[in-house]
Give the backbone structure.
Amino acid sequence: MEKFKADNTIMNTLSTAVRVSKKKGNLDRDEYKKGINASKTETLFLLFEEALKEFKANSFIDQNFSTASTLLKGVNYTIKDIEELCPILSQSYANETTSIGIFISAAINKIIKETDTIVLDFAGIEVNYLGYCLTRGNLIIKGSVGGYTGQSMQSGSITIHGNSGDATGRSMKGGSIIVDGNAGKYTGEFMQFGSITIHGNAGDRTGYSMEDGSIIVDGNAGKYTGEFMQSGSITIHGNAGEYTGHPMEGGSIIVDGNAGKYVGIFSEGGEIKVNGEIKGISNNAKAAIFCEGKKVN
């Protein structure tokens, strides 16, 4: 109850600050902060609003991340300030899930240290792009998230206590991602290194065009697992859908359960091991395919 009251107090202060700022017009950012005597959390909120205006004029994620990073230069704040900001942004800008994710990721990257842990709670809002370009530290996210979590991350760890949307770990270069629930399509797409562990199920095209690294799915995976994969490893402890290994060039896929039809279709290399049953193997598969321990092509 105390935390709820504290959040409401901050919200009331922010509402007043925003109204004052609109009357004053477009001031210099430093003058703007001095004029309203903003606290650290309030300062971050107002900088988010400033960033949001520029985000809306540009659809490129990397440029928006750079914009947020520039706005945050010279601003002093702590991990706690970011943690307090998350539910406030969720209440104020529930439809801006991508902008929130980019801004929070830029704010984290600026101050987090190797051994730091930050806990993010967006009060039920599924935010996109959390952990974008993460270089260090540990992110713990309460609840489910949107898409592109951990995109282009280089190091550190992300733990999601819920489900994850599409393209989790897209183009990640290192670090680890753990999802307690299910993950959407394209998990580990273009992954270069690092590890992704899904404790639930994963959607279609898990490991799409992955170059290296490892993906472990404790449940089932959808169709086209390992599509266009070049290297690395994918382990599915449950079943895999149709077209597993289409058209993989290298790496290994292990399915502890059963696999659907067209296993290895148009594959050029690599290895596929299915410990359960295979409904059908493509006659043009060049990958080494094993079923119940025996090579079948």
Q: What stands out?
A: The mean pLDDT is 89. Helices lie at 2-24, 29-36, 40-55, 61-71, 79-92, 97-111. The two ends are 63 Å apart (CA to CA). DSSP finds six helices and eleven strands in the chain.
